[in-house]
Amino acid sequence: MRRAFFAVLLAALVGASCTSAPLTSLRNTGSTPTTATSSTTRPPSALDNLTAYFTAVANIDQRLKAAAAVANGNIGATEITVSKATLDIIATADPTPAANDIPAGLPPDVMQPVLRVQRDLLSRFYAFRGFTVLVTEQGEPETILRSDERAAYLMSCLQNGSQPAASFAADLAAAQAAASHAPPVVAVDASSRAAADLALWLHYLVLANSGCMMCGDFRVTAIPAINWHHVAPLSPGGNSWDGDMAGILFTAQYTAGQGWAVQINAC
After folding, report:
1. Are the C-beta atoms of 260 and 30 separated by less than 8 Å?
2. Which of the residues 21, 33, 69, 255 could staple to 49 if both were Cys, CB 3.0 to 4.6 A apart?
3. Contact at 8 Å (CB) between 95 and 57?
4. How far is CA 161 from each of CA 73, 74, 125, rounded to the nearest angstrom?
5. Alpha-carbon span 154 to 158, nearest angstrom
């Protein structure tokens, strides 16, 4: 059912009744790529710009594997017992900060495999969402029976992490290969359209894997086209929009020193 919902969402969701929480691009919106010293055995390439990102995702991959091992240990034959240690280790595996090291302005044939890597990590991370909902109002972990409907949600979400975990190594290798054949990225201004586009794509990936209680079952097949154009408010007193991504309206506003705050009209 979640897959059917998002298929409709991707087709067109102009006029949706709820709006995603805004996301502000952080330290490195891609406007100032982190460039490593190029190897003496190959010419400079976009791989140099992505060295910090690829290092970060390799670390996140290990943290996700550790989280999976601990999470699986919480699942018994009749009960699921969520420990604080489990929640803590899941929290350390959040791949969102790693995206700060993706430079804006990558060519499409590099940006797409890089975003696929980020999607793999986000899908694996949000596959643990069933554990994070098993917390009392006081913030304490709890134990539930396997017959509880929350247990069914938890187990269903966990399955969503299998495919991206299996494809991660190949997807990472493909992104690295694509970057090695592309020229180095020329730094763009933090307020540029390229930086805004990157912020929108990254927020799109987070929302696709986590919006409306989804839990990591979205796969990137193509970078959604971003069309910048003014759209009047959908209702009296509402906000105007700055464009759409494959028919999904968005706003994007830049603040010096803070980056781009983006919001997508979907839930």
Report:
1. no
2. 33
3. yes
4. 16, 17, 8
5. 6
Q: Distance between CA 157 and CA 206 in Å, rounded? A: 15
Q: List the beta bridge partners of residue 79.
A: 145
Amino acid making up residue 239: N
Whole-number Å distance between alpha carbons of 257 and 240: 24
d(CA 191, CA 261): 11
Residue 72's contacts (CB-CB under 8 Å, 6 or more residues apart) are none
Residue 175 structure tokens: 């992104």
- Kind and range of the H or E run holding 24: strand 23-24
- Tally of domains within the chain: 1
- How far is it, in rounded angstroms, from Cα 175 to Cα 161? 20
261 contacts 255 by C-beta, under 8 angstroms: yes
Q: Within 10 A of 7 (CB to CB), how many other CB atoms are there?
A: 9
Per the CB < 8 A criterion, the answer to whether 178 and 113 are in contact is yes
CB atoms within 10 A of CB 80: 21
Per-residue pLDDT tens, the chain, 267 aa: give them: 333 333 333 332 223 334 444 555 544 444 344 444 444 577 999 999 999 999 999 999 999 999 999 999 999 999 999 888 899 999 999 999 999 999 999 999 999 999 999 999 999 999 999 998 887 666 778 888 999 999 999 999 999 999 999 999 999 999 999 999 999 999 999 999 999 999 999 999 999 999 888 999 887 778 899 999 999 998 888 889 999 998 899 999 999 999 999 999 976
